[in-house]
Design goal:
The protein is α+β, with helices and mostly antiparallel strands. It has two domains: 109 residues, Aminopeptidase (3-Layer(aba) Sandwich); 168 residues, 3-Layer(aba) Sandwich (Aminopeptidase), CATH 3.40.630.30. β10 and β11 form a beta hairpin. The longest helix has 16 residues. 35% of the residues are buried. The model has no long low-confidence stretch (mean pLDDT 96).
Length: 329
């Protein structure tokens, strides 16, 4: 059962958090010294304009989560999210986060933010699956555990396209890998053959993250209602006599989110970004007569060439490639 938490549930909160923290050596759990708000946690979040939930089973507490509004950017923070070890893998974590995000969205949240200990690797993986990406510097806490925390964030409303820095790019590797595998399986021609393995896909995105960190590549991500569903890149590593140019590569949209304007939004944001970077000419190539070609033509790209049998599919059948260019305005 998932319900709104109350101050009378103090022992349940202490049990859930204490059990989770004890999984990590060096993490000190001292309620009265560092977490006195746990004695009246529902009131603590209510006073901040937020809400707290608790999930229970026949044998005791199973999970908890809370959310509250922040002071800037229409953001709400996810906090105190913990799931009993026995309840992990059951979908409870998703239900808890769904509940908190829905509450925040109903109250006008445009962005979700959370902080998570750098040691909580399983939590990082979970949040990344849910469309969160790392943002900003690591936070240092003055606590008994000498904690360091990552900041994760994502937009929650509508269709949003944002540029990802190196930390965000690294945290998005898993999700972008899934999207690319699905696109290749759906017939996309993005330099890989189906079936694309997880290992090969992840290796690609690790290289992309490295190039973002070096300033050789711009990586954009697209969210629809909080789900990370698409991406495109600007390759800035052009020869020294072509520093005015960038190549647009790997336009990918999760097949489940096609026909919602995601591809167009990514393309338009890529053009704007290129112009801000002083890249006055954009180029790309695409499989001839594919859906992407129709999009490029509609957005004003000009065909610059056609090569038959430029690439092959998994069966060895050759197909033509068209080259396009555009001067962003």
């Amino acid at each position: 059962m998932l319900r709104i938490g109350t101050d009378a549930d103090t022992e349940a909160y202490i049990q859930l958090i204490g059990d989770a923290w004890r999984e990590f050596p060096g993490v000190v759990f001292d309620v009265d010294a560092e977490l006195p708000e746990l004695r009246a946690l529902a009131s603590y979040f209510a006073e901040k304009g937020g809400q707290l939930w608790l999930s229970e089973g026949p044998e005791g507490p199973l999970g908890m989560v809370a959310t509250r509004p922040m002071r800037e950017d229409g953001a709400w923070e996810i906090g105190r999210m913990y799931v009993n070890h026995a309840a992990r893998g059951t979908g409870l974590a998703h239900r808890l986060l769904d509940t908190a995000e829905a509450h925040a969205r109903e109250h006008g949240a445009e962005r979700m933010v959370l902080w998570t200990d750098t040691r909580f690797n399983a939590a990082h993986s979970f949040y990344e699956k849910r469309g969160y990406v790392r943002q900003g510097a690591i936070r240092i806490l003055d606590d008994l555990s000498k904690s360091l925390e990552f900041r994760y964030t994502k937009p929650t409303q509508g269709l949003v396209v944002e540029a990802l820095d190196a930390a965000a790019a690294a945290s998005a590797e898993r999700r972008f890998s899934e999207i690319m595998i699905a696109c290749v399986a759906d017939g996309a021609s993005v330099s890989f053959l189906a079936p694309l393995s997880k290992e090969k896909s992840r290796a690609h995105w690790k290289r992309v993250s490295s190039e973002v960190a070096q300033g050789h590549r711009v990586l954009l991500g697209a969210w629809v209602e909080g789900a990370l569903v698409g991406t495109v890149q600007l390759d800035l590593a052009t020869p020294e006599n072509q520093q005015h140019r960038a190549e647009l590569v790997k336009l990918l949209v999760d097949p489940a989110y096609r026909r919602r304007g995601v591809g167009e939004a990514l393309m338009r944001r890529a053009e704007q970004t290129a112009l801000r970077l002083g890249r006055r000419l954009l180029t790309l190539d695409t499989r001839a007569d594919c859906a992407g070609e129709k999009l490029y033509r509609r957005l004003g790209w000009t065909e610059g060439g056609f090569i038959p049998d430029f690439a092959q599919d998994a069966s060895g059948q050759g197909f033509a490639t068209r080259f396009f260019f555009k001067r962003p305005e």
